[in-house]
Amino acid sequence: MGEHGPAADEHIREEEAVDVEWSGNWVAGRLGVELVGDGELRELLGLALRRNPKRAHLLVSNVLGKHVPQRPSVVHGVGYELGERVRNLLGEAEARRAVVLGYAETATGLGHAVADGLGVAPYLHSTRRPVPGVAQAGGFEEAHSHATSHLLLPEDPDLLKATAGGSPLVLVDDEFSTGNTVLNTIRALHARYPRDRYVIVALVDMRSEADRGRLAEFAQEIGARVDLVARARGTVRLPEGILEKGRSLVAEHDARDSGPVASGSFAPRPPVRVALDWPAGVPDGGRHGFTPVHRAALEAALPAMGARIADALGEARRVLVLGFEELMYAPLRLATALEDATTAEVRYSTTTRSPVLAVDDPGYAIRSRLVFPAHDAPADGPGDRYAYNVAGAGFDAVVAVVDSTADTPALHAPDGLLARLAGHTDRVVLAVVPSYVPSPTPHRQEAAMLPEPLRGPAFSSYAAEDVGWLLQDLSDTVLEAPTEEREEAIQSGGAHYAESLPVEYQPSPQYQELFKAALDTSATRIARAVGTVTETVLAERGPRPVLVSLARAGTPVGVLMRRWAQHRHGLDLPHYAVSIVRGRGIDANALRWLAAHHDPADVVFVDGWTGKGAITRELAAALEEFAVAHPECGSFDPEIAVLADPGGCVRTYGTREDFLIPSACLNSTVSGLISRTVLRSDLVGPHDFHGAKFYRELADTDVSGLFLDTVAARFDEVAGAVDAEAKELLAADRAPTWEGWAAVERISEEYGIHDVNLVKPGVGETTRVLLRRVPWKILAKRGAGADLDHVRLLAEQRGVPVEEVAELPYTCVGLIHPKYTRGATGADGTAVTAK
């Protein structure tokens, strides 16, 4: 197992004795940062400067194995000793029921070593690498990090669930600074997997006095015991203005070009690839879970793998084993095995995403850096990666350990990691650990065959992070038909409305001005409704819901809800758009994709507004049918969250007023340039998503961004009102009244229509009638003001009468021409009969 406990302590002191200057002096002297605490603190930590606008300084651990090469037995031994302390704290019975959770990227190896110290606990670490076909069991954000989103992707969906006898959750991070990240994680997981005990483990506890008191308060708040185990304790004293001073110092040294080592003195030679013979079935780490059975199998295989690496090193006497970002534990254990297999001096560290200033000074923790492009096709796109304290450190061999996912052409490119290493060492050895692929359930296998969501700018004018469209792109297919032709086909039963598209309405300059005036007038009211419905969702549906808007009216609302959560709470909520078609149900393939990538219990369906509640009923029926047909996918909650619920059809809403939502005034040009959705058997196969078109040619008239930005600009202005309204709503009886449905049935009979589908209540639905269907007449509530200016203009343009009505539960109601044929003349449909 390598060296642990006191032996590891001796190694730390031995390493520090070689270099008497503290590796934090440079930063402390220039920025006035003070490190105060246990006597061991300066042996454990140095200081460097981040390239991060959220935090100026970086605590650089000498024993973590991330930025500073260290003896692998020391790195593993420090974590192992912390795990032994946790086991003693919990006792044997509770230790056997515990689960250990480490943080990506810096603490994945530390957390695994802590789990080794417990010896009897499974291990999982968070990840920033999504894996197709593996459902997410949770996630959380790390506010100060350069890359914040953490995913939890256990192969066993029950891994994080508490058992009847109690199962403590042990959370491991390299440092416990303010405590925000860990406490937010516990809060998020406790909402989904409540338990009565948590243990926080860190190398160093650096909280201030104010932060220390929060832990006890937090434990009382959630009704659980929360313990803390740390190697050392202290605090960092930061002077005022440190962010500005840090940025200036980084800029000054960048101007001197003192950062990365650009080239080395060694003539590059091709790397030597070593076959590890990694044990079959053993995961490469804790991304999907690592059990005590896996641990035993790995321990048995390590000596032989260490010997193979030693053979590939030749006469090298000073060796670095270099891991890769989240892949910390497998390289660490290969390095401990190499220590046992050779007399060479062995050190261990890993590459990282973290951008840090390098200064070649003995009083600074990061002496050099190598820069190279990412080589694992990361989900968030390409970018630079770094290896610190490797160049100029005198290693005559480097063993680069990556997983097979990262063994790509980019790794071997002229500017890739292997080439960068070759310029600074005589020999580069490449060891590839097979990336572990969880055994997928049948529904995950099927869902993995479905395409990934479409995103802007390739599909829609929304930013890629705003929404993922679970649709197929039919932009090159002719689908538009004249409105009158579509109406006749629909009413005669010859076609379904979702089999074709109306010709996109091109607003006149006068109408466009009405839209802008309406947006300016209503932006504050919309912002309040957005805030209120989002706060209600966050309070009732957990800390990290997955927003799924019903395309397309729901999509702008989903984007705004996502922006509210981000602006007010720093949450980066996933958001997708799916198709639902009246009479045909919701896209089942989209639901299968969602179930494979997220917990269905987290999914919150979003729409713009309710009319009579037809879509509300459609969704409930479709989800019930889906649950019967696909029980393996779990259950989706049919509750829809809407901006406005004038029909009294849902219990999660921003307001029940029937007012103008300007996104209802236009079609694609306020919805990311996306058409309404299409479902036609010759275009949408059994394994396809429903379709839609991206109207790129309308970019000059696109106001999608204007709508979002105008409303979001009012968020701060309405924050106080939203807090009060959300609190009031959460305490109120919000049961649906279905008042709107009753009114529609009454109107349908009173006006001789006898078909509720031809009665479209509310400002939004009335606007749709005027833009997409053949309208018969408009009923307007007497005294309705500016909310109906655009309706009156459209009605005038189409020759449709507007009838004022005294008793109307909506601001207006649009009536579709009953029994329409193209032989009908005028607007008075009462005289029209079908052919």
TrEMBL record:
Segments forming domain PELOTA RNA-binding: 738-817
UniProt KW Transferase keyword: yes
Domain of life assignment: Bacteria
Pfam families documented for this protein: PELOTA_1, PRTase_2, StiP, TRSP
GO molecular function: glycosyltransferase activity
Record-linked InterPro entries: PELOTA_dom (IPR028157), PRTase-like (IPR029057), PRTase_2 (IPR041688), PRTase_dom (IPR000836), StiP_N (IPR011215), TRSP_dom (IPR022537)
Domain (Orotate phosphoribosyltransferase-like) ranges: 44-234
Protein name, as recorded: Phosphoribosyltransferase
Gene source species: Streptomyces silvae
Native organism taxonomy: Bacteria, Bacillati, Actinomycetota, Actinomycetes, Kitasatosporales
